[in-house]
UniProtKB/TrEMBL annotation:
GO molecular function annotation: carbohydrate binding; peptide-N4-(N-acetyl-beta-glucosaminyl)asparagine amidase activity
SUPFAM superfamilies: Six-hairpin glycosidases
Residues covered by the Glycosyl hydrolase family 92 N-terminal domain: 42-267
Pfam families the record matches: Glyco_hydro_92 (PF07971), Glyco_hydro_92N (PF17678)
Domain Glycosyl hydrolase family: 274-761
Any single GO CC term annotated in Swiss-Prot or TrEMBL for this entry: cytosol
Annotated source species: Streptomyces mirabilis
One record GO biological process: glycoprotein catabolic process
Species classification: Bacteria, Bacillati, Actinomycetota, Actinomycetes, Kitasatosporales
Name of the protein this chain belongs to: Alpha-1,2-mannosidase, putative
Length: 782
């Protein structure tokens, strides 16, 4: 049984969801989706909401500031295995690994307000009454109340249908979130309006505080209201300030009119910004906002038209495409003001300011997908990152809202920005970006900066490697490159290569030569006695276990998994470990290739995957975490490109139409973008550069609508007629009708193409195996 049939079976047996009124519910058997149905009908927002996928099912528009979604008690928000909702809160990030956001959980109740802890007043619900689709969510609570959510870019819109009662309440909980709440202020401004200011901190570890401002406007006056502070509820109170539990309740008489609608606007600037966003995007009915959100998503998804494959395959694909457009998020208000990383107010002029930067994850897949399908937004995102440097003095590593968290290691901002440059998104900003990147690559942030940057850069520049210093005290919150010196070295070297290529293009020849030389520093941690990369201590001595499956000094992985993270020079790395035969033998062992051929789905689930957070002590491919995302494409550089297709298609079986259908954390669209790119047959094999590796698409035809400002042809069609679980091997390829024998394309060549077509068959062929077929190493002559 092959990968396509396994996907279909997994969709029908394991998971899934039914289509009802254009919305998705889980679980049940799926009905077939007519070809003419809206693409939004193929999106299942519940995928990844169980087994630590950490996605959310609630309402958002593409890249919106607001993600209005239920929280069930899981540390990142919603977990499908739980059956109580504590509130519907405004801020969520798709697939993060630690608690973040969850600001202002709102819950409708009836009766007297006696509890102030949302863990005690939470409402039970059943998935049978739960529906979600792009831009909307609804659920029937077992209290007899129906809750419906939708969103604009900067507002969350809610509609509650109550039983007939004179005590229909809406609780606005300012003091409890998914992060650590430091202080909150609640104000009831009039008989329709509630305002809050919420200051919080956190994400895996404490960070500098940030403040979120909200204003909620109801569609009709409430009959009474009050606030709570701690356990004390005070009817008639108009204001409450607290460092603990804090909130407001408003009450309505629903004996005749049973529905209550409200719009909540968000701002990271100030209360005036929240009010402005409310005026700019509020004032419309719930139905009108929901309809517009659905149209927005349909327009976005319609840029990728996939044909062929079963319903389950198409559902997992379009659900991944949907999640790829959820972040980064708008950070500026309707008037362009935003809070910079210097905690001062700035105004974005000529661009939209974005925030939330999971760069260690997204630089490998999602940033390239957005460059291809959403280049205007991707340009603004890149400019926003440059503004972070200009506002705060340093580039980000993992940024949330208005602060740096320093989560993860290496230098991910460099390939993120060099990718934007290579994709033509930095016109007018090239030198500003380069200056920021050069400072980042050659220095270390000062002690009074919240950023850690390339923390081990002094030693790296002096000695060619970042040392692994076990149990070194952290000078700043977040992760430390010294804890993961071996993988930090590989990440630094990758970034040096990408910056060197940018420097060469811009005419900074001396810098280009210097960075190109540093890009070879991966060799400094190669231990010839083991044949693998290995951590070195401050004296330069190899340290930790010699067994590469037990190696220390690698972030969320082992030496086995990091050995392929040399995309800037795979030919050199292959020679280093003994040549193509050695590399192919090692790759076959790494992917359990013989087992894979016999049973790809079982190999993926039982050999590769060991648990959502089980990153260590393994000698096998981990398809659910970032270090290995490029690894399947290594075969393109070892003369066996058909094996890339085998591995990629096996890994795609891990994506199913189920709450457990996300492989690992989504990490702001990273895994989803991997699925999308791998499914259409083009993948960024040199992140930070302009190289796209080729493999067999899983669809017979994919039509991409592209922005003519960046892709003059305006469209690209990728075909692989007859592709299936059996006929999955590329026999030949053509670009615009002409034969093509290489296993990669460049962005420049993509811009000139109308069509990329593959002929496929049941057996591997000689396609892509010639000496010049593989993606070349980055170097002065490239």
């Amino acid at each position: 049984m092959g990968w396509t049939q396994r996907l279909r079976d997994a969709g029908m047996v394991v998971a899934t969801t039914i289509l009802l009124g254009g919305s998705l519910a889980v679980p049940a058997a799926r009905a077939a989706v007519p070809p003419s149905a809206p693409l939004t009908d193929l999106v299942n927002p519940f995928i990844g909401t169980e087994n630590e996928g950490n996605t959310y099912p609630g309402a958002a528009v593409p890249f919106g500031m607001v993600q209005f979604s239920p929280d069930t008690g899981h540390n990142t928000g919603y977990d499908y295995s739980q059956n109580h909702i504590r509130g519907f809160s405004l801020v969520h990030l798709s697939g993060v690994g630690c608690g973040l956001g969850g600001d202002l959980p709102v819950l409708p109740t009836t009766g007297d307000v006696t509890e102030t802890d949302y863990a005690k007043y939470e409402a039970e619900f059943s998935h049978d009454s739960e529906r979600a689709s792009p831009g909307s969510y609804r659920v029937d609570l077992k209290t007899g109340i129906k809750a419906e959510l939708t969103a604009t870019a900067r507002t969350g819109v809610q509609r509650y249908t109550f039983p007939a009662t004179d005590k229909a309440n809406v609780l606005l909980n300012a003091g409890q979130s998914l992060h650590r709440t430091i202080s909150t202020k609640v104000e009831i401004l009039d008989n329709r309006t509630v305002r809050t200011a919420i200051t919080g901190s956190g994400f895996c570890q404490d960070t500098k505080p940030y403040t979120v401002y909200t204003v909620t406007r109801f569609d009709r006056p409430f009959t009474t209201s009050g606030t709570w502070n701690g356990d004390s509820v005070t009817e008639g109170s108009k204001e409450s300030v607290s460092a603990g539990r804090n909130g407001a309740f408003v009450r309505f008489d629903t004996t005749k009119d049973r529905t209550v609608e409200a719009t909540t606007a968000l701002s990271y600037v100030d209360a005036r910004g929240a009010a402005l966003n409310l005026r700019s995007e509020g004032g419309r009915s719930f139905d009108a906002v929901r309809s517009r959100a659905h149209r927005t998503w349909e327009d976005r998804l319609d840029d990728v038209r996939a044909q062929g494959g079963g319903d389950t395959l198409r559902r997992t694909f379009y659900s991944s495409l949907y999640r790829s457009f959820l972040a980064p998020n708008i950070g500026s208000d309707a008037d362009g003001r935003y809070t910079g990383w210097d905690q001062r107010v700035h105004r974005a002029q000529g661009f939209t300011y974005y925030q939330n930067w999971s760069l260690w994850d997204t630089y490998r897949t999602q940033s390239q997908l957005l460059s291809l399908l959403a280049p205007r937004e991707a340009r603004d995102m890149a400019i926003s990152v440059i503004k972070i440097d200009e506002d705060s003095g340093w580039l980000p590593k993992w940024g949330y809202g208005t602060v740096e968290t320093n989560i993860m290691t290496g230098d991910p901002v460099t390939p993120f920005l060099t990718n934007a440059y290579q994709q033509g998104l930095l016109n007018g900003y090239e030198e500003r970006a380069y200056r920021a990147l050069k400072k980042n690559a050659d220095g270390v942030p000062p002690a009074d900066s919240p950023a850690v940057g390339r923390e081990a850069n002094k030693e790296y520049i002096a000695n060619g490697f970042a040392p692994y210093v076990k149990d070194r005290p952290h000078a700043k919150p977040g992760d430390s490159d010294y804890d993961h010196g071996a993988s930090a070295t590989l990440e630094y070297a990758l970034s040096d290569a990408m910056l060197g290529a940018m420097a060469r293009d811009l005419g900074h020849d001396a810098d280009a030569a210097r960075y190109a030389a540093r890009s070879q520093n991966y060799r400094k941690i190669y231990d010839g006695s083991t044949g693998f990369f290995r951590a070195r201590d401050a004296s330069g001595t190899f340290t930790g276990p010699a067994d590469p499956a037990l190696s220390e000094g690698f972030h969320e992985g082992t030496s086995w998994q990091y050995q392929w993270l040399v995309p800037q020079d795979l030919p050199g790395m292959v020679d280093l470990i003994g040549g193509k035969q050695t590399a192919n033998d090692r790759l076959d062992s790494f992917f359990a290739y013989e087992q894979l051929l016999k049973d790809p789905a079982k190999t993926a689930r039982e050999v590769w995957v060991n648990g959502p957070y089980d990153y260590y002590n393994a000698d096998k491919y981990n398809p659910q975490n970032e270090p290995d995302l490029i690894a399947p494409y290594t075969y393109l550089s070892t003369g066996q490109p058909w094996k890339t297709t085998d591995v990629v298609h096996a890994a795609l079986t891990l994506f199913t139409d189920a709450p457990t259908g996300m492989t690992g954390n989504d990490d702001l669209g990273t895994m989803s973008a991997w699925n999308v790119l791998s499914s259409i047959g083009i993948f960024p094999v040199q992140p930070g550069y302009d190289t796209w590796g080729l493999s067999t698409p899983v669809f017979e035809r994919v039509d991409l609508t592209l922005d003519r400002r960046y892709y003059p042809r305006g469209a690209l069609t990728i075909t692989a007629m007859g592709t299936s679980d059996r006929d999955r091997y590329i026999q030949s390829a053509k670009v615009d009708g002409s034969s093509y024998g290489r296993t990669y394309l460049t962005t420049e060549s993509l811009r000139g193409l109308r069509s990329l077509s593959f002929t496929v068959g049941a057996e591997p062929s000689g396609w892509g195996t010639s000496a010049d077929a593989a993606p070349p190493a980055l170097g002065p002559t490239r």
